[in-house]
Write a structure and sequence with these properties.
The protein is mainly α and 115 residues long. 88% of the residues lie in helices and 0% in strands.
Amino acid sequence: MDRDSHSEDSLSTMVLENIKNKLIHAFRTTGGSREVPQEPGSSDRPVSIGRSHQANEELRRAQIDGAITWLRTELLEMRSQDLQLAQTLLGLNTEIQRLRRESFRGLEIEGDDQQ
């Protein structure tokens, strides 16, 4: 079971990295395609726009990283719940099998008493 959870971890990490890369790419293309008109006499404006763009990019990355962290947490919680559910189902199956055996034994004893 440890090997399965390790492969699930690897798969989850790959999926999350893929989502992260897609989001970063999407934000880059939407952020880079915007053009801000420049005034002819303004020389310090491109620097502040560049800093603003860089700050926005860092904010977007932080938001994406936060979302990925949240997704990881949710996936780990789901895995934990999945394992608990599997244990419960296995316990129920064992109990059902035990009750069936007891029931069949009771029928065999009743059948022996009638003969």
